[in-house]
Design a protein that fits this description.
- By secondary structure, the protein is of the alpha+beta class.
- The protein has three domains: 1-51 and 290-431, no CATH class; 68-264, no CATH class; 485-665, no CATH class.
- It contains 25 helices and 24 strands.
- A hairpin with an 8-residue loop joins β16 (526-532) and β17.
- α14 (433-466) crosses α24, α15 (490-505) runs antiparallel to α19 (649-663) and α23 runs antiparallel to α24 (778-803).
- The protein is elongated and about 105 Å long.
């Protein structure tokens, strides 16, 4: 029987090649999209699970409260937290503190011939010597258990070993000279590890013992709770429940910080965050690794289901549409003794075969689609065919697809009456027509939601990129300041930096230049608690401070509302601050004019307010305006901002590089343009838009394949009607318009359903942006028009071919 089913299925597939192609290829695209999305989701859910101790490692988070009001949750804490927990909590097996090398450093290695390999490196971390005991990394050379014991040790990745030494075998024992960082000195390579896996929230190329960092003055003078610059990880003993530690943590906070917190009417709560949950928990302050929300994961799952459903709908529609053609086959089989369950089995087998062919092609398509998605998200995504879960999914899709797409056609076609079919009543069978309309509406509605969503995402991204930021980012060249500098004579070094900036300003094509500790889109230099002079300590609010030189405001074109910018000739100016409008409300400073008479307390310093600046977007437009302060600095070593003229930018850049290398030999020349750097903040939204548009295109392709098949079949069934109309004088355009309208009506019905859903979905998505586009009518009308045109072209081409046939060929046998 199976052999007979197989033979019949093959004959039916070959008999109607176009319909077979639509079914198989449509299913293949749907299944391929499903496989690609599931692989991407699997990758996102796999973060940090490669660590052998992943189940027992937690990152400590800090939630701060001021007078009962939450100030948010962050991932940083003081360096004393880890030791205190291990001392007071027997459940804690080990603590691991990490601290990034903010701003990076210059790594210098001299080979045997005396040639220097000098690069600015950004991916550097400090960590406790227990780091490699808790976390799992693959050692290529060296012993990780002892690699971090020496104070001057450094562990590097394969990438760095090959970059500096050509291979990993020659790296051990080599000496790096680190300059311009938080702990300069000579470091010996004690181990080389494989490159950090892409599914890790914690990344580095160099990792140094934290001992060197703690020797810095600011930490030596601290009790371990004041400078909250460290990320603390805790490894618990097996079978310890985190819930049992909450009360003990409250007692620990009271023991070590109770007095200080009581004086400021503050509260701090430390929580345990499993490392496998870090990537799936966005929104924590000071989080530097990319994260993804669980709602986004569910969204992608929903998209894959929708696209797969669209593909299955094609099969159902085309199978029921061919009911008239298959009716005689069913009637004859029943008349010679076939049971209904045998006919159902035959149609289900056909469905199984089509789904099997679709899955085979889908795997090939998925292999082509996966690198495309990988390029969009910036990850190396590959299928692991040795993973049993892959084949479980394949079997599940095959089974579900065969049943879902084949069940209705099988039961519907097998229900035909023998007498009615054999008496010629097959042509009057209308079963499935209403369902087909509903399914086509579902396809169009799904496609419309994807088109409108893509349109909205791209418009929001472009809105954020093109909105006036209140400061200049176009044609702004950023040059990283020198890291290798001698500070034996600070006055002389400072003058060297001032001279360098002056020489930059003299270059033809440089309109202006300024130095600063940070740049727009690049964070801040100092985050501290701030309050108006005269207010109580409990009135402290967080604020961010950036050190800038006197030319910064002018170079960036920031508007001064009241007061003035820094004047280097006036000592009091250089001891004052500039604040933005958001700071007026945050610190209760009153009007811009009133604020000039006030003073602010920054930590333990009291400063005057020199000027009020119009609000500017230092960060992306996803966030609202927040308090920013500029503090004066004669010159900064961190960043130099050069506003360039549009003409001969290449020549200008060459001159800038020449001046830099002449002034700071031994320093790498690194530069970038601010608008590109600033817009990196929208990378997530841009990736989301590309993924959305990719899936929207695929969904439309699948829907159009089904529509093409339905239009072709409908046209072939109505050839007599078309011929009669032509004989009575109807033109081809009239016939195309008449028959196309039947399908375009379904587009309109789908629009009525999809537009409200799309409106709600886009509005909900936009709530995550402080500055957002409005829900204008064209966001919904344009996608409807686009989908209508696509549907009309798809249908009209098929109808035009049928309407162009000579009526005599169709009616001559009547």
């Amino acid at each position: 029987m199976i052999k007979n089913f197989f033979t019949l299925a093959i004959r039916n597939l070959l008999k109607r090649r176009m319909y077979s192609f639509i079914n198989v290829f449509g299913l293949a695209i749907g299944i391929a999209v499903c496989l690609v999305i599931l692989k991407y989701i699997d990758f996102e859910l796999s973060y940090d699970r490669f660590h052998a101790n992943a189940k027992t490692i937690y990152r400590m988070t800090t939630t701060s409260y001021q007078q009962g009001e939450s100030k948010g949750t962050g991932i940083i804490s003081g360096y004393a937290l880890g030791p205190a927990m291990q001392s007071d909590l027997p459940e804690v097996k080990a603590y691991i503190r990490t601290h990034p090398m903010y701003g990076g450093a210059v790594a210098n290695y001299k080979n045997k011939t005396g040639d220097a390999m000098i690069f600015r490196e950004e991916s550097m971390q400090f960590a406790d010597s227990t780091f490699f005991d808790a976390f799992t990394y693959q050692a290529i050379n060296g012993k990780l258990s002892t690699a971090m014991i020496k104070p001057n040790a450094v562990v590097i990745t394969r990438k760095i070993a090959e970059k500096y030494f050509g291979n990993t075998n020659d790296a051990l024992g080599k000496i790096f000279q680190i300059s311009g960082g938080w702990a300069d000195g000579d470091y010996e390579v004690t181990s080389v590890i494989e490159n950090i896996p892409e599914n890790s929230h914690f990344t580095f190329d160099f990792i140094f013992p934290i001992h060197n960092l703690l020797r810095n003055g600011q930490y030596k003078q601290d009790d371990g709770w004041g400078w909250n610059n460290f990320v603390t990880y805790i490894q618990l003993h097996p079978n310890v429940k985190v819930s049992s530690l909450k009360e003990k943590m409250a007692a620990l906070v009271e023991k070590y910080r109770g007095k200080d917190l009581a004086e400021t009417k503050s509260k701090v709560v430390y929580n345990f965050q499993s490392i496998v949950d870090i990537h799936l928990t966005p929104g924590y302050r000071y989080e530097s690794s990319p994260t993804i929300s669980e709602s986004t994961i569910y969204f992608f799952i929903t998209i894959s289901i929708f696209i797969l459903a669209i593909a299955w709908v094609n099969y159902i529609n085309l199978s029921t549409a061919r009911a008239v053609e298959r009716a005689r086959e069913v009637g004859i089989k029943k008349s010679i003794g076939a049971f209904r369950h045998q006919i159902i089995s035959q149609f289900l087998f056909e469905s199984f075969l089509i789904n099997l062919l679709g899955i085979i092609i889908a795997i090939a398509l998925a292999l082509l689609l996966l690198p495309v998605l990988g390029n969009i998200v910036g990850k190396n995504l590959v299928f692991d065919f040795s993973d049993y879960r892959f084949w479980v999914i394949i079997f599940g899709l095959l089974t579900a697809g065969s049943i879902i797409s084949g069940a209705y056609p099988a039961f519907f076609l097998s229900s035909f009456s023998i007498i009615r079919v054999l008496k010629g009543g097959a042509e009057k069978i209308g079963g499935g027509f209403t369902l087909r309309k509903a399914l086509v509406v579902f396809q169009f509605a799904s496609s419309l939601i994807l088109i409108a969503g893509t349109f909205a995402i791209y418009r929001q991204v472009m809105y954020m990129r093109n909105q006036d930021k209140g400061l200049t980012t176009e044609q702004m060249l950023i040059v990283d300041g020198p890291k290798v500098l001698s500070w034996q004579n600070p006055k002389q070094t400072k003058q060297k930096l001032i001279t360098f900036k002056h020489n930059l300003q003299q270059i033809n094509g440089v309109l202006d230049a300024a130095s600063s500790g940070a740049i727009p889109g690049g964070g801040h230099n100092w985050g501290t608690m701030i309050r108006k002079d005269g207010d109580q300590r409990e009135d402290n609010k967080s604020g961010r401070i950036v050190w800038v030189d006197p030319d910064f405001i002018k170079t960036y074109g920031i508007t001064v509302l009241t007061g003035r910018s820094f004047n280097p000739e006036i000592k009091s100016d250089m001891e004052s601050v500039l604040v933005n409008e958001a700071a007026l409300k945050a610190f209760g400073l009153g009007t811009p004019e009133e604020a000039l008479k006030e003073r602010l307390i920054l930590g333990s310093d009291t400063v005057a307010i020199l000027g009020i600046l119009k609000n500017y977007h230092w960060e992306s437009l996803k966030t609202d305006h927040s308090p920013w302060l500029f503090k004066a600095d004669t010159i900064s070593t961190q960043r130099f901002s050069l506003h360039l003229a549009s003409a001969n930018m290449h020549n200008t850049l060459t001159e800038v590089e020449k001046v830099f290398k002449e002034t700071f030999p031994g320093n790498p020349f690194d530069y970038y343009f601010l608008d590109d750097f600033f817009n990196k903040q929208y990378k997530g939204e841009q990736q989301f838009a590309k993924i959305f548009s990719l899936f929207a295109i695929l969904a439309i392709v699948i829907a159009c394949l089904g529509l093409w098949g339905l239009a072709s079949f409908t046209t072939s069934q109505k050839l007599k009607e078309i011929s009669v109309r032509k004989v009575l004088g109807a033109s081809v355009p009239n016939i195309v318009t008449l028959l196309s309208w039947q399908f375009l009506q379904l587009v309109l019905i789908a629009s009525v359903i999809a537009v409200p859903l799309t409106w709600f979905g886009i509005d909900q998505w936009l709530t995550g942006f402080a500055f957002r586009i409005g829900l204008h009518w064209d966001l919904f009308v344009v996608p409807v028009v686009i989908l209508g045109l696509i549907a009309f072209i798809t249908v009209s081409v098929q109808i035009f071919r049928g309407a162009s046939i000579n009526p005599a060929k169709v009616l001559r046998s009547e």
